[in-house]
Design brief:
The protein is mainly alpha-helical.
Length: 171
């Protein structure tokens, strides 16, 4: 039982270290970046359902990519990818502190932050599957694997719904 949780938390810790370093880097960054980005503006102008589908597809793609690189690299590149995704989020949060209050940042990120769990869980599952196939070592059972995979996809989809209908609707 401890191994199951330990490996998952290692992936989660990589993500949160990325967030922390990204925030620091984002707060220190003095380069000018335009707040006008056509893909971001498109998300805000789409109706909620189309925005939900767009966000869900993107996050599922990120989760599947994390799963596959976790599988093909014994989890090593998945740790790096989780760190990188955390760093990007942290960098955006750090840059946002120059324009928004902490309260505003939290109001627009907290409602859908469960996607972090879903995406990191996908990388963890890729790692687990590679260990099972290469070393014939079972960290989780054959029954638990599809359940956890389904749970991670459900978490990602629910988070995309919350991001579209709650987080991006806050004025």
């Amino acid at each position: 039982m401890f191994k199951k949780i330990l490996y998952f938390f290692i992936f989660l810790i990589a993500y949160f270290i990325g967030i922390a370093l990204g925030i620091c880097d984002g707060m220190e960054d003095t380069s000018f970046s335009s707040p006008h980005n056509s893909s971001v503006e498109k998300l805000f102008t789409e109706n909620n359902f189309d925005r939900f589908i767009s966000i869900a597809k993107n996050n599922i793609f990120v989760g599947l990519k994390n799963f596959l690189i976790g599988f093909f690299s014994l989890g090593i590149l998945s740790l790096v990818y989780s760190f990188y995704n955390g760093f990007v989020l942290g960098f955006v949060i750090g840059k946002s502190t120059k324009l928004l209050t902490i309260k505003e940042i939290l109001e627009t990120t907290i409602p859908h932050c469960a996607e972090i769990i879903g995406i990191v869980l996908m990388g963890y599952l890729g790692f687990i599957l590679s260990i099972r196939i290469l070393f014939n070592t079972s960290i989780i059972t054959k029954k638990e694997f599809p359940i956890l995979l389904g749970i991670s996809l459900i978490i990602i989809i629910i988070s995309a719904y919350l991001e579209s209908y709650v987080s991006m609707s806050i004025q």
